[in-house]
Amino acid sequence: MLTSIIILTYNNLEYTKQCLDSIRRYTEKNTYEIVIVDNHSTDGTREWLQQQLDIKLILNEQNLGFPKGCNQGIELSEGDNILLLNNDVIVTENWLDNLVKCLYSDKAIGAVGPVTNSAAYYTAIQVPYLNINEMHEFARDYNKSNSNLWEERLKLIGYCMLIKKEVVEKIGLLDEQFTPGNFEDDDYSIRIRKAGYKLILSKDTFIHHYGSVSWREDANLYSKLLSDNERKFKAKWGTSSQSYIIHHELINKAKFRPEEKINILHIGCQAGATLLKLKNNYKNAGLYGIETNADEAREASSFAKIIVKDVEPALNELTNKKFDLIIVTAWDQIKHPDLFAEILYDALNEDGLLLSSFDNIFHYSNILNLLQGTKPHFGNFSTDLTIESLKDILSEKRFSTIITPAKIQYQEEIKRFLDLISSLSGEGMRDKFETTKYIFESSKLDITLFTSLNNIKQGTSVEESIRVLQSYSVKKVIDFIMQNFKEHVSYLQAMAIHNFALNNHDNVLPFLEKAYELDNTNQDTIYNIAFILNAYGETKLAIKYLNSVHNKDAQLEELLEELLEAEKEKNQELIFLLRRVEHAITPEESEANLVEIINEQANTEDEIIDLIKTNTVHPEEMLNKVGIILFERQSYENVLPFLNAAFEMNKTNDDTLFNLGFILSEFGEYRLGLSYLESIKNKDQDVTQLICNIKGALV
Fold first, then answer.
1. Which of 483, 552, 542 is nearest to 512 (CA)?
2. Whole-angstrom Cα distance, residue 267 to residue 292?
3. d(CA 11, CA 214)
4. 386-411: buried (b, 16+ CB within 10 Å) or exposed (e) per residue?
5. Which of the residues 5, 163, 223, 536 has an alpha carbon 20 to 30 A from that of 477?
6. What three-state secondary structure class fits 550?
7. 573 C-beta neighbours (distance < 10 Å), count
8. Cα torsion at 417, 124, 151, 31 (round to 10°)?
9. Where are the beta strands (DSSP E) in 391-484?
């Protein structure tokens, strides 16, 4: 089988050399022919091409444009397949074998194309390489034929398009009205599909594309050409580039199993590109669409059931149908949002998903368009709806909704513009300027959860409602409150208070922490946190929360005073115990009680140390004594803080130095222990013997 590779050239000789070199290197001999059409290059390209002995060459005396040049190459070709290839492409290992295998895997397939690093219409993928050698290493691993990665598309991009010759013979050559180029590949894609063939993006095949090198020198001309040719395309087919949008931001939210039999409805489906992508993901899906544009609907109807009507009347034709996924991207066409939402609720299965996007009119591009004197793009924005009002409508119609702002990565030039307009705007506007659209993810409201939370908030059937909610995770309940109630803090407080009253202690603080996160000045929240922390023995932390409030109400003042008094009494009891230990009053009992307090961390070590320093007669001796008591009672992890505190008070105290040296050596820290022992000024026999023993252990 022979593939005719048709390449147009117009200057950019270096790219052409790289392209041909890669074809020769990575394509099996005798499986292809190269046909080059030069559109009157002036940089030495023509002369170099004339020296190449393995190509067919057409040298035009003027630039006839891309469609005409391709047609010349096709007419000269002799292959079973036609491959249109840009000269700024570098092909890779297995590229043609993979594409041909995909093309002939099904009689219904008319054309295929690969993925790349730089191309339009969702054909580009993220790549890790930094140079051509790394690119080839990447492609070598990437280009493994895999039919699971073949994806049907409405359009293929002409930088690399492999077409069966029978298809070309059936539909004819490229439409030369799109000269000098752009939209001829869109046009050809439609013609191929209208002839009954499929288009496949072969996502198991990667080639490198430098990208639009012919147009870089005159961006304005390129922009005008795109606009002119899009008008021609729309006049011919009734569709535009916007008709073929794939809403990946919505598709990615759908988490059905690939083999599931599900029904999908897209309201505002246009030419059906999103539905087709979903068909690739869910092979057993039933596809339905509503579209007011008859030309767009005609394209989608080749693989889905499409109703061509205004949205509300069209939905009435589907009243007997239930859907697992409903996508809405036509909010600007909705005349009665309340009624529409009600119909959606009835149409959605109980565990179904409603996905919709709402274009953001505050996006920076609209501001830029206005500054440049061009018309802003409002997309599917409806003047009758706002983000907030739409969420309210969905909530009233028993939908639970999560709203996510969709953003993309911006180049440095755009970031500087965002900095500028943000500095001139109110606080928080930058987030709106960066957001392209808002994603609504809605599901039918969990009535059990909704009713139980309302009962708890109102103080009715509380115990039963709390019992019901125990089957839900705390996170799910918090998320539900955030999504479905405006009085977030009140519901969160009610959940915490009633769970505390019913001894469900694991379900208390998470609700209060969320309430505090939402509003850290709410005195009711702070009172509840302090009260409950104190009940859990965290009195000092409770006092800290209370002290964070500057203008305390009477309740907070009363609780703070109560906790401070309790803390004082608690400290008094501890001080009394410390003095009993210091003076060896009922020593066994006193020491045991102190060790228990330290082990249970009823007071922190720092707190006890401070009390020893300020409330005992001989603090250094007492700190040493407590350290030794803890050691003797095997509370080893608590020993050193007390001895270190004694050392900090007096670094020359021989008793402290001995105790540190002895205990550190017992812990295996011989060298450190030795350093303390050798610092003792008056070494007695015990000290000398201990030093000798440690040195012996170090030998």
1. 542
2. 10
3. 8
4. eeeebbebbbebebbbebeebeeeee
5. 536
6. coil
7. 12
8. 160
9. 399-406, 437-444
CA angle 234, 237, 242 (to 5 degrees): 55
CATH code for residues 570-698: 1.25.40.10
CB 499 within 8 A of CB 470: no
For residue 367, count CB atoms less than 10 angstroms from its CB and return exposed for 0-12, middle for 13-18, buried for 19 or more.
Answer: middle
**pLDDT on residue 591:** 93
Outline where 27-61 has alpha helix (H). 45-50
Per DSSP, the three-state class of 209 is strand
Res 570: pLDDT: 79
Q: Which helix (H) or strand (E) holds 203?
A: strand 198-209
- Tokens representing 617 are 């007669």
Third-level CATH fold of 244-444: Rossmann fold (3.40.50)
Alpha helices in 485-553 (DSSP H): 488-501, 509-518, 523-535, 539-547
Q: Which CATH number fits domain 458-552: 1.25.40, 1.10.3470, 1.10.287, 3.30.450?
A: 1.25.40
Where does 40-131 have alpha helices with state H?
45-50, 66-76, 95-103
Q: Which residues of the chain have pLDDT under 70?
A: 212-219, 377-384
Q: Looking at residue 143, what is its pLDDT?
A: 98
Nearest-10 crossing angle of helices 554-582, 619-632: 80
pLDDT of amino acid 213: 58
Provide the 10 A C-beta neighbour count for residue 644.
15
What residues contact 289, with CB distance under 8 A and at least 6 apart?
265, 266, 267, 269, 272, 275, 297, 300, 304, 305, 306, 307
Burial class (CB in 10 A: 0-12, 13-18, 19+), 628: middle
- Taking only Cα atoms into account, the Rg of the chain, rounded to an integer number of angstroms, comes to 38
Structural tokens at position 608: 């006890």
Do residues 133 and 97 touch, judged by C-beta distance below 8 A?
no
CA pair distance 441, 338, nearest whole angstrom = 18
Specify the amino acid at residue 69. Answer: G
Q: Which CATH code for domain 3-237?
A: 3.90.550.10
pLDDT recorded at residue 368? 86
For residue 164, what pLDDT is reported?
98
Positions of E strands within 528-641: none
How far apart, in whole angstroms, are the C-alpha atoms of residue 415 and residue 396?
A: 39
Domain ranges of the chain: 3-237, 244-444, 458-552, 570-698
Of 8, 300, 67, give the one whose Cα is nearest residue 185: 67
